[in-house]
């Protein structure tokens, strides 16, 4: 196995984001850490991030990774720091390293990082600089979905406590929601995420909808390989995002990983690219008309699949099972 350099981050890249309603250049970095504590208790059903995490990474390695990240930093207004876990977990990012990291980006307008709610404590919040933005992975506003489909290891009330505490500290919250965790039919997934957007919006400055991307070594990958799971359709994602017209004061967007591939959110090869371009435009313009008026032969396939799943009471990948039957 190739030796991993613990002094280098997993990856660094640049993209655009939004700060105070304006499009802004963003530096994105993923620190290599000892990983998410929850993943050592089984972790979430869709999460393969612990693959990038290793034991034995302490303050010195994290600070060396920071130096490597700073070499790529060109004064972008936004900085997004991920850890394949929780940035606020002192086991992952020791307190001294956290202070050094946040201090290094003092000039940025926003520094976004993600944490599970249990690490969002009053003491930690007091120590954060004012340009911090805290991302919380709620995934779903249903405790049943969190327990049975996501295996999240916390409940909705834990998210509410953390989000309220962040907002009381005067910092913005970004909420991540998961579209179509395992065992959910397409229609139920759309409805669950729409309900979750309505729930999270009043507590968030921005809500990011993440359609499930099948990651290696996960429970979901096992289902997907057997044909018992299909990632959501882009049509379904659009149904969720159209809710933006009912909301005010919150940015609703989606930057899906693996989009247009079999492992990620996809429709068909004829329309994937066109719809993903419309999604990119919507993310910044927040104009729901960009999500409407698209047509493709696969739209009928999507509506008939939703009906078939309801009639058959199944969340398996019906098309794949039918194809397998026909090829026998
Ligand atoms: S999704 Fe987040 S909380 Fe769940 S196992 Fe992965 S890193 Fe941990
Ligand atoms: Zn299509």
Contiguous uncertain segments of 5+ residues: none
Give the strand line-up of the largest sheet. 1-2-3-4-5-6-7-8
Bound chemical compounds: iron/sulfur cluster, zinc ion
Order of helices and strands: EEHEHEHEHHEHEHHEHHH
- What would you report as the Rg, rounded to the nearest angstrom? 20 Å
| N-to-C CA distance | 39 Å
| Count of DSSP strands | 8
Which class best fits the helix and strand makeup?
Answer: alpha/beta
**Fraction of residues in helix:** 25-40%
Helices, by number, come to 11
Overall pLDDT score: 95
Specify the CATH architecture: Alpha-Beta Barrel
In CATH, the homologous superfamily goes by the name Aldolase class I
- Domain count: the total is 1
Strand content: 15-25%
Task: Say what the CATH topology is.
Answer: TIM Barrel
Provide the CATH top-level class: Alpha Beta
Sheet with most strands:
8 strands, mixed
Please state the overall shape, judged from the principal axes of the Cα atoms: globular
């Amino acid at each position: 196995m190739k030796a991993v350099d613990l002094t280098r981050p997993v990856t660094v890249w640049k993209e655009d984001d939004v700060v105070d309603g304006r499009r802004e250049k963003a530096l994105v970095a993923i620190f290599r850490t000892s990983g998410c504590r929850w993943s050592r208790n089984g972790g979430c059903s869709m999460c393969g991030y612990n693959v990038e995490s290793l034991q034995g990474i302490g303050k010195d390695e994290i600070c060396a990774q920071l130096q490597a990240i700073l070499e790529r930093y060109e004064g972008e207004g936004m900085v997004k720091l991920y850890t394949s876990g929780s940035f606020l977990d002192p086991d992952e990012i020791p307190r001294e390293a956290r202070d050094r990291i946040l201090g290094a980006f003092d000039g940025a307008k926003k520094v976004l990082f993600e944490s599970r709610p249990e690490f969002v404590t009053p003491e930690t919040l007091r120590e954060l600089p004012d340009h911090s933005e805290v991302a919380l992975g709620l995934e779903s506003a249903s405790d049943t979905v969190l327990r049975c489909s996501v295996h999240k290891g916390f409940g909705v009330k834990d998210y509410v406590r953390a989000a309220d505490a962040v907002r009381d500290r005067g910092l913005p919250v970004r909420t991540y929601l998961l579209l179509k965790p395992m065992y959910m039919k397409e229609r139920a997934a759309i409805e669950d995420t729409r309900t979750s957007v309505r729930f999270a919006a009043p507590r968030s400055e921005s809500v990011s909808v993440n359609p499930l991307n099948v990651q290696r070594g996960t429970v979901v990958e096992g289902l997907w390989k057997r044909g018992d799971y299909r990632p959501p359709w882009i049509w379904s994602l659009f149904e969720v995002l159209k809710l933006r017209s009912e909301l005010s004061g919150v940015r609703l967007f989606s930057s899906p990983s693996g989009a247009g591939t079999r492992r990620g959110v996809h429709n068909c090869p004829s329309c994937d690219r066109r719809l993903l371009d419309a999604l990119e435009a919507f993310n910044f313009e927040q104009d729901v008309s960009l999500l409407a008026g698209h047509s493709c032969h696969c739209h009928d396939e999507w509506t008939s699949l939703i009906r078939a799943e309801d009639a058959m009471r199944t969340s398996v990948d019906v098309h794949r099972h039918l194809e397998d039957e026909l090829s026998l």
